[in-house]
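Ticket reopened. Same input as before:
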Amino acid sequence: MDEKTSTSPEVEADIERTPVEPVEQEGLEQLISQLDKTRAVLGEWSLQAQCLDADPEAFFPERGGNTRDAKRVCAKCPVARECLAYALANEVRFGIWGGLSERERRMKRRELQIKAS
Ligand code: SF4
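Engineering reply: fixed in the latest deploy. New output:
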């Protein structure tokens, strides 16, 4: 493990204890149904993405890596619902989108029973 990616156990514990407010997901199903018509097209919302200047590695961590830094950015993002709806509608498999990890999005897809087309 190189110096850039290593984190001390104390810092890891601190990261785990720091709560990240979940992204507001109200109206998600309606957004998804709208986005389904324009699958694989990032909308104008993406121009307001809070992560445009963020470290991409934070949003695409290795398996089991820290997702909190990205989720903190997402929690303040004005287009988090649109981003999550896009990722769910297009079954984006990697990275943090709309404040959710890949696994969390799979669970959300099941919860919303989004069908792949
Ligand atoms: S919700 Fe997160 S990943 Fe999506 S655009 Fe906003 S900051 Fe980027």
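The pocket of iron/sulfur cluster is lined by residues 49-51, 59, 73-74, 77, 79-80, 83, 96-99 (CB under 6 Å). Confidence is low (pLDDT under 50) at residues 1-5. Please confirm and we'll close it.
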